[in-house]
Specification:
Pdz3 Domain, single chain, serine protease, Thrombin, subunit H, six-stranded antiparallel beta barrel
Length: 378
């Protein structure tokens, strides 16, 4: 068993060792984290030498820079303001509602952007790449596809339309570039790849937008309405939404495909709205049809003299006994089952006015087929 004297000697030794260690650490700390002084002439007090850059940028970098410098001439900043009246003085003032990006469609001053960028605007101001500002008018809008066309009066030499590409032949992994002019500060560029194809998203009108391009190129709120480009600078989509549970960029952005844009924009320029192909019928709301336990689209009313009327389709009617007799029930279009109005409108997207479709209908509990030529509907 250790004697009391040996224990005391051990404790004394430990205490002395701890004191020496503490003194050593204090001495080291005295020179640590302190300025070297004005007379110090070592290398740490001088700028570090610059490492020489490579003789040339990589081919991919040069291509990206060229696309950006060319495309920025076409990308614009859009400011949306509302007119409000002071309730006491009755003075009017412009109140900013939001902003976004857009791009030049043609030399005649037509611009394309998202519908949600200009929604509710009383005045719209567009800033071009040369920083000139122009008042814009809304030519047409299609909320169902989140697209709108504006027009400004500007010299043709300030208007540089983007080259139009295609979206039907895009491939996952293909490089893309998203360009915007957020907040009117300056143009921004983000790059990425096509992450997925054929996605569906909801528009402001709660309609489904089909064939959407998904990308991991960062799309921030100020970039909405700006172009998504392929590696050669061709337009392949209009940036419209991000998925962000936290409110921050999460690597999932969506663009309306250019094939859709190139079909709709000319219609908006010509008519101010999208002229859709339709049957010339009014349908019973889905919620009521579901409550009835019916699968399909129930025709409520047939427009007199329209395509459905000429094809012999029937709407709901009142019998002599005072009972309501249901109209024809559409269960398929060109062999594809259909159960909701939204689904029917999606099937109509690929068709034009004048096209003929074959409807499978149920009338008096019997299934039959009817051919109908599509007519223009609002």
């Amino acid at each position: 068993m250790m004697s009391l004297r040996r224990i005391m000697r051990s404790l004394a030794g430990m205490t002395a060792g701890a004191s020496v260690l503490a003194l050593s650490l204090w001495a080291m700390a005295a020179d640590w984290g302190q300025p070297l002084g004005g007379t110090y002439d070592g290398t740490e007090g001088k700028p570090r030498p610059v490492t020489p850059a490579p003789a040339e940028l990589s081919p991919d970098e040069r291509a990206t820079i060229a696309v950006f410098e060319r495309a920025t001439k076409s990308v614009v900043f859009i400011a949306n303001t509302a007119i409000q009246r002071d309730i006491w003085s009755f003075d009017t003032m412009e109140v900013p509602q939001g902003s976004g990006s857009g791009f030049v469609w043609s030399k005649q001053g037509y611009l394309v952007t998202n519908f949600h960028v200009i929604y509710g605007a009383d005045t719209i101001k567009v800033t071009l790449a040369d920083r000139s500002e122009h008042q814009a008018k809304i030519v047409g809008a299609d909320p169902d596809h989140d697209l709108a066309v504006l027009q400004i009066k500007a010299s043709e030499n300030l208007l540089e339309p983007l080259a139009i590409g295609a979206s039907h032949d895009l491939r996952v992994g293909q490089k893309v570039l998203a360009i915007g002019n957020p907040f009117g500060l300056d143009h921004t560029l983000t790059t990425g790849v096509v992450s997925a194809l054929g996605r569906t998203i909801k528009s402001m009108s709660n309609r489904t937008i089909e064939g959407v391009v998904q990308t991991d190129a960062a799309i921030n709120p100020g970039n909405s309405g700006g172009p998504l480009l392929d590696n050669s600078g061709r337009l392949i989509g209009v940036n419209t939404q991000i998925v962000s549970p936290s409110g921050a960029y999460a690597g999932i952005g969506f663009a309306v495909p250019v094939d859709t844009v190139n079909r709709i924009v000319p219609e908006l320029i010509k008519h101010g709205k999208l002229i859709r192909p339709g049957l010339g019928v009014s349908l019973v709301p889905d919620s009521i049809v579901k409550r009835w336990g019916i699968k399909g689209l129930v025709i409520g009313k047939v427009s007199r003299g329209g395509s459905a009327d000429r094809a012999g389709l029937r709407g709901a009617r009142q019998t002599q006994a005072g009972r309501i007799e249901l109209g024809d029930i559409i269960v398929a279009i060109d062999g594809k089952p259909v159960e909701t109005i939204d689904h029917m409108m999606d099937l109509m997207e690929a068709r034009k006015v004048g096209d003929q479709v074959t409807l499978d209908i149920i009338r008096a509990n019997k299934r039959q087929q009817v051919a109908v030529s599509l007519q223009a509907v609002n």
